[in-house]
Input
Amino acid sequence: MAKKAVKPDLLAAPPENDAGQSVSESVFHKLREDIILGILPPGSKIKLEQARQRYSVSVSSLREILYRLTAENLVIAEGQRGFEVSPVSRQELMELADLRIVLECHAIDLSFADGDLEWEGRIVAAHHKLAAIERRLLAGDTARTIDWVRSDWEFHQAIVSACNSAALMQSLSSVFDRFLRYHMLAESFRGAGVVDDHRILLEIALKKENNAAKECLSKHVSSGVTHILDKLDLGH
Output
């Protein structure tokens, strides 16, 4: 019997508002995405009245949402002074990169051990979608950047989707999103290099070559860090 993929709900587009989703939950996803995508920049104050109008939610609900985001280190609660979007730093970037490599490499080992034909199909389908968007980006269609962000995560998630650990996927997804915030601030799509990385990862994953996949992933993440540091002034 095929094992069901673990599908976290991270930077995927939030579901449409319906009977199964409250306004508060919808606003949580939207505010979280605005932080990750850099629409709300690091260090910016979140003024409750302005945010209430922007997101069409009550102040009490907004406070609850912001406290939820503090648990993900995306927002800082400043007591009587209110809330602030968490700043970025070189130290945090390096820590997130290391965490992502550790978690994703562990998930690769588990996923490669249990991956079946359905798993292979998910990887191929995710890469097909990602590659189509990357071709457009290479041709200069920057309007597809947000689509690429989501498709990039879907591809990486597909590779580790047979790990059968909801806790591992949740931790990896949280780290991925916080790492992604740096990429968005650096306005990165890295171009042909990242496209080649994804193609190689696809080939290695389908062969279930654990060590090669983990080595490729480590280089992939490290190249992203180098690109971010070239684009952003994060100090020393």
Remarks:
- The longest helix spans residues 90-114.
- Confidence is low (pLDDT under 50) at residues 1-10, 12-20.
- The radius of gyration is 18 Å.
- The CA atoms of residues 99 and 233 lie 22 Å apart.
